[in-house]
Amino acid sequence: MSTQASLTVYLQALGGKFLGQNAYYPDNIGVILEYSGGTVNLPYQVTDATNDGILSPAFVNNSSSVFPVITPIMEGYGLNFLAPDTSTIYGVSLFTLPARQENARVTVNIPGPAGYQQIQWPIVLSPAELIYYATIIVPGLLVGGPEFNLETGMVSIYVKMMCGCQITVGPDSYWLPNDFAVYINVDYGDSTKYIILQFDTDRNNSTFTGYVPDIDQALSVNFNALQASTGNTGVYTLFLRQ
Question: What residue ranges in the chain does DSSP mark as E strands?
Fold first, then answer.
């Protein structure tokens, strides 16, 4: 007689929240279990009623201990811990347990402006265990939405956590611009120019801007972003002309 078990998977951005309504096209996130019994889809359904977790400086029993949210401040770092509640987004499904213990894996496909990122997470299935939970860490940064002004030479790009959380300045900011370095490499064909972008304090919405000389002569622009506290990186390449 076959035995049914359940697998619940949370997807947490490295240094951020769970991937929910603010993530990049969350309806296209795919989560599957692969084992000897076949492939099982874990529906990851973001709705208006779901949230991406609760941040608090206090660690509680169900907090994600994989990685806290680190906020660089004047005198070191502020720490906040992420915890789910009954409305937090996750993927879940029932599956038939194998007859004996085996190594399986969860494969996650996550969309971003530069394409899909695939993560494979190992999991051990045992006939004696009926309930499984996994918090899978999603590294990287969302870098996209480039804007160019050919008259002024100004360019801009957004940089966000994989959960879609924005970099801002303010009393409720968990992700501050001083934790991020954003720069571009501009290819002119016969030369390349390196330019550092600055956080746009007027917009205060995860946008970094800078001036590119002779932008009308550029062939392509490669955007790069780095978060110092986590090592998260993100890239985006825009081809302007052949």
Answer: 4-13, 30-35, 38-41, 54-56, 69-73, 76-83, 91-96, 102-112, 115-125, 131-138, 141-149, 154-161, 180-187, 192-199, 207-211, 220-227, 233-239
CA dist 187 and 43 (Å) reads 42
What is the C-alpha to C-alpha distance for residues 175 and 16, in angstroms, rounded to an integer?
Answer: 9
Q: Are 154 and 210 in contact (CB under 8 A)?
A: yes
95-120: b (≥16 Cβ within 10 Å) or e = bebbeeeeebebebebbbbeeeeebe
- Residue whose pair of structure tokens reads 């660690």 in the numeric block: 59
Following CA atoms 209, 213, 216, 218 in sequence, which dihedral angle do they give, to the nearest 10 degrees?
Answer: -90
- Of 121, 124, 118, 122, nearest to 101 by C-alpha is 124
Residue 241's CB is within 10 A of a number of other CB atoms, namely 9
Of 57, 72, 64, 76, the residue nearest 17 (C-alpha)? 64
Q: What is the pLDDT of residues 65-103, one digit of tens each?
A: 556 787 876 566 788 889 899 999 999 999 999 999 999
CA distances from 43 to 31, 73, 109 (A): 7, 38, 12
pLDDT in tens, 29-74: 999 999 999 999 999 989 999 999 998 887 776 666 556 787 876 5
How many CB atoms lie under 10 A from the CB of residue 212?
21
Cα gap 88→48, rounded to integer Å = 11
What's the distance, CA 7 to chain centroid? 22
How many residues can be counted in the chain?
A: 242
